[in-house]
Amino acid sequence: MTRSMVPSVATEGPVLTELRLEVRAFLAEQIAAGAFVPHVDTWLTRWDRDFTRELGRRGWLGMVIPTEYGGQGRTYLERFVVTEELLVVGAPVAAHWVAERQIGPSLLRYGTEEQKHAFLPGISRGELTFGIGMSEPDSGSDLASVRTRAEQVEGGWRLTGTKVWTSGAHEADAFFALARSAPPDAAHRHDGLSQFIVDLRAPGVTIRPIISMAGDHHFNEVHLDGVFVPDDRVLGELGSGWSQVTSELGFERSGPERVLSTFPLLATAAQAMDDGRLPTDVGLGRHVARVAGLHQMSFAVSTALEAHENADTAAAVVKLLGTTEEGEIADYVDTLTASGWALDEELDTLLHAAILQRPGFTLRGGTNEILRGVIARGLGMR
Ligand SMILES: Cc1cc2nc3c(=O)[nH]c(=O)nc-3n(C[C@H](O)[C@H](O)[C@H](O)COP(=O)(O)OP(=O)(O)OC[C@H]3O[C@@H](n4cnc5c(N)ncnc54)[C@H](O)[C@@H]3O)c2cc1C
Q1: 179 lies in which domain range?
Q2: pLDDT < 50: residue spans in the chain
Q3: Best substitution site from 106, 135, 326 to test ligand 1's pocket, by max atoms within 8 Å of Cβ?
């Protein structure tokens, strides 16, 4: 039972450590050159196509995509090390995050040869960006209830409906839309769903901003009004959308971004204690220990992916514990200010952003309540 919660973990050998140090040195140079200012939750909030292209040039995108499709043909563990280094310094990685994390692997698993050649090289170069078109105004946790309909027409499909909370849709080139291609069947409500690769510049697509409580524009409502999707842009099998999105969510939930969204805040607070800008506080140790444990667990999930083992339950455990800790880091640094110490501008900016982003941590990619259900099912308890 424990093994399905935390698979065994590989050790980080010299190849991975060398890669880690190479990425770390590059990021230190970038920060010193003013290419970006470290921030929290940057995999959602900092969209920078130039930075993403630079990562592509260095071979740090599409790492698990085979070379025949323009990728790097490297391992999940190498990808883990690169993503972790990007996150711990709060680099601007939102532009490629969704494409690299889940669209590429889904295309590899379900795409046609033509689709793989059409999209994977651009994703690996950091030139092609994607969003996720799953949630709808009345369908979040209960994704099977999506109402966006796909009607078959000559040469393809017409999609009509509304997607919501679509992160980065106003910047992205395309998204995978989950839609109902056949009427619901009360006995098998997961049947009749399909995934479509939708060009977000196509006629009939209207993207409206949703402004977050931090005053930023990251997510959107996307209205699809009879948007034409040709037959060759259906992803996988018609009617198999449910099993496909479930597998896509496996990739979406498993990475170190579910642990490290507020790590730059924790690291800056630790540095401030060291410099005497904040009082030293033993509570810091609790969070450092938790992050260290979660690093091992998240690395174990990547180890399982590399071995082609099912890691869905383990990924849900990491996401549940990791996103909870991300929020608790924000709370912890906030309590330090209650003792009357004034924060400098750097720490104050990070803390303010972390507190405002915090409610989303345990919602996006599946809420904690839903994840507890996934874990219970994975352990055979329901
Ligand atoms: C920052 C952010 C970015 C996002 N980006 C995207 C994106 O790019 N694309 C996309 O498609 N979606 C995106 N989402 C949407 C996200 O996936 C949904 O918010 C999430 O799945 C929850 O759905 P909901 O908001 O409709 O809440 P609901 O499903 O209405 O849930 C409301 C509450 O009820 C609880 N609940 C619901 N069902 C159950 C149950 N069966 N048992 C116990 N409790 C239950 C939930 O846990 C929650 O607390 C994003 C969300 C956030 C916060």
Answers
A1: 132-240
A2: none
A3: 135
